[in-house]
Amino acid sequence: MDKEGDKVRQLVWTRKEGQDPDGGLNARGRAAYNRANGANLKAPQPEGGPRRDSFCARMQGMKDKLTSKETANDPDSRINKSLRAWKC
Prior knowledge:
Structural class: mainly alpha
Number of strands: 0
Largest sheet: none
Distance between the termini: 41 Å
Shape: globular
Helix content: 55-70%
Number of helices: 5
Radius of gyration: 14 Å
C-alpha cells in the first residue's frame, strides 16, 4: 500500500469510524492508534478498578480546567460521553 493509504489507515481514530458514538474510541480506533504509535490502549473499565479511578480523576480535572462552559455542560460533548461510558 502506498504512503497515502497508510496515512489514511493510521488516522482512523480521528475520524468517525474510529470513534465510539458513546464517547472514546471503538476497537478499530484503538487498534489503529496502537499500530501508529506503538501504544497499548485498552477498552474502558467501567466496572471499576485502578484504571477507572485514575481515568475519572484525570478527565474530571480536564473537564473543569480545559473545556469551555458550553462543552462542559453539553451532554453530547466527547468528554461527557467518555465520562458516562466510564461511569465516572
